[in-house]
Each structure stands twice: as C-alpha cells, then as structure tokens.
Amino acid sequence: SYELTQPPSVSVSPGQTASITCSGDKLGDKYACWYQQKPGQSPMLVIYQDSKRPSGIPERFSGSNSGNTATLTISGTQAMDEADYYCQAWDSSTVVFGGGSKLTVL
Amino acid sequence: QVQLVQSGAEVKKPGASVKVSCKASGYTFTSYDINWVRQATGQGLEWMGWMNPNSGNTGYAQKFQGRVTMTRNTSINTTYMELSSLRSEDTAVYYCARVVRLTNNAGYTSGYYPDSWGQGTLVTVSS
User: Fold this and answer.
1) Cβ A97–B44 below 8 Å, yes or no?
2) pLDDT tens digit string along A89-101?
C-alpha cells in the first residue's frame, strides 16, 4: 500500500520560514494537499492540488510537489500557526494521509 | 456555507456496534462524496472509506472491510457510518468529510481530497 512519510516535528522561530516535507513514491505524479489541525479541532484544508490555497487561507501558506516530495511552506510563521499538519494524496482508489508533523513556533 | 454536523458522543461495550450520522447543508448533497476518517487520541488521521450519496456506492479501506457500513438518506441529506464488533482500539474521534473529486480529460480520477469536515464524534469503547 502507498505510504506518505512526514517528519514528526518541525520547529521554527516566529517570523521565520517553516518547511514541512511529505515523501512518497512518485508523489509528484499525484496531487498533494495539506491540512492544519489544532488541538480539539477538526482538520482544515490549507493547500490543495499541490499549491492552491482555499479561500480564507493566508498567503503565507504555500505548497509545492515534485519528484517524490511535497512541501508545505509557511512564510513569516506566526504563533497561531502552531499545529499538527498532515499531507494527503489519492492512490489506487484510497485516500492516504501522512503521519503528521507537529509544528512548534518558539 | 458548507456544514457537516455529526451526532453526539457514544459509549459502547466491546462487541457492540455504533452508528454515527453526518448531516450536510450548504451545498447539493448528491454532488460530492462523503468520506469517514478517524483519529485516536494523540494519533494521526486514518481513512476508513467513501460513499457516493447519489448512487449509494461505497468503498472501504481494507482494514475495515467486513466491519464498516456506510449508508445515506437523501431525503434528509444525511450519511451514516456504522462500525461493528467494536474493540478498545476503536476508541477514537470519527469525522465525516466532504470530498472533491478531480477528473482528467479521459474521465479518470486524478485527485480526491476532503475539503470540509464535520466537528467529529467521540466513540469510546469500554467494558
């Protein structure tokens, strides 16, 4: 079965750029999306179709996907961005999630 | 706006079944698949399967085959997820989510992702 691998944790200083990676076999041939989840809340879509932002998502969130790696980039990271982030792709009629990355803003 | 409202928390004994509902509003119910995803405390997201509210067709993750059933009632814009033979490891928050399906020029699915989520339903399995 298809697998997506994320780093368990990523740390960033306020105002700096955070990058969270998601690796999978030929992931660049699929569409990747990203979800933000804060404690006690439902996941929220922040990036879809590799690099598109839903309405209401700040411009500091961006995405890319090439080769075997998709990347979520948060520019000018704010304290409110501290959350768990999950990547997702579609493979063989199955929704696949990465294991999640905890972003700490310190 | 799109809203998915789920039923309330449940406490079940091992071996029992649970049925969680998800009522949709703010869009055409039959135009989007609904998926179910669960999350155990402190763990990641686990996909359970999909349902097409228009046709009633379903597809389940291999892990849940034989234990999960997804149904719908189009007259009240509601989908249901029933999980049977519950065990302690099924204790989790269960989410329904509306899904966007992308198709290529040949008509094949090229992308498939949840874009709106319900508030979650905590199911606790305990003797």
Assistant:
1) yes
2) 999 999 999 999 9
